[in-house]
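Long-time lurker. I teach an intro course on protein structure, and each term I like to show students one example going from raw sequence to a predicted 3D structure in C-alpha cell notation. This year I'd like something fresh instead of my usual example. Would anyone be willing to generate the C-alpha cells for the chain below so I can use it in lecture? Attribution to the forum is fine with me.
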Amino acid sequence: MKKIGLFYSFNSHKTAKLAERIKEEFKDTSFEALNAENVNEKQFLTFDNLILGVPTWFDGELPNYWDEFGPAIEDMDLKGKYIALFGLGDQVGYPENFLDAVGIMAELLESRGAVIVGLTSTQGYSFESSKAVRDNKFLGLAIDFENQAHLNKERVQQWASQLRKEFI
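-- Reply from a regular --
Happy to contribute to a lecture. Here you go:
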C-alpha cells in the first residue's frame, strides 16, 4: 500500500480525536497527518491514498478550511487518487442534512477524477436526508459523537480494515 495522507483540522476537537483513532489503526503503515487548515496543492497531490476529515457545519455546510480549499481542488487532476472521507454530524439535531459535507466533498473530488473508497452502510443510523448517501451507503465513515459515541471505536476499526483492501 502506498503512503497515506490524513488531512483534518488539528483544531477541531472531535475530528482530531477521531483522526487519532484512525492513525492508531494505520500505525504500521507509511502515514502522514497534515492540518487541513493549512493544506496546499503540492501537499494534497503528494499522496495517491488520502483520508479527509470532513465534519458537517451548521446546516449542511463544509467547514471553512475545506470550502476555502475547494477552488484549488477544482483545478486539480485527481485521476489515480483514492480518497476516503470520514465525517462527523448529529443525526438527531440535524436529521435533514446529516453528513452533507461528506457528500459535497465527494462530489467535488469525483468531478476531478478521484475514486471515493471506504463507503459504509447506513444501517444503524436514523436521519431524514443526507447528501452523503448514494445507493443506501454513506460516501465514507459516518460518525455521530453526540448520539452514538459508543460505536466509534468499532466503526473506525471496521473502516480501517476495509480501507486496507481498497487503497492501492
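Some talking points for your students: The first helix runs from residue 13 to 25. The beta strands are 4-8, 31-35, 49-53, 82-88, 115-117, 120-121, 133-134, 137-138, 141-143.
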